[in-house]
Amino acid sequence: MNVQLERVNDALQFRAGNESGYEFSIASTDDMEGVSPMEMVALSVGGCSSIDILSILEKQRESVDSYDVEVEAERANDETPAVFTSLHVKYHVEGEVEPKKMRRAIELSLDKYCSVSHMLEGTVDISYTFTVNGTEYDGQTR
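User: That's the sequence. What structure does it adopt?
Assistant: Structure tokens below.
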């Protein structure tokens, strides 16, 4: 894996890219265009686990019509560095999906397959909830 960063102007803003040529912006503050590094970590947990979950549901022959994820992050107050203390991931799926299969897919991802959540293990409490066709189900804390 190879990624690159190039500073934009004299700001704390960067043009980032990967080996495939995909580019995006990383920025230090909300008033600059881009995603902050901490937002990228939270997004990475959502993205990594989602890839696993959708792959597992497909193998289980579940039919997903739509899927989205929200990640709520809490950071340490008045500390430097202000690391994450908790992440709560909310998975939303619509389609012909059995809730027990959705729960199993989430647990397999967070417990076994998602490299990003495993890197945070032991330092960040990761919890989840999920909805299937609008009905909410409680998850667990990792």
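Residues 87 and 126 are 5 Å apart (CA to CA).
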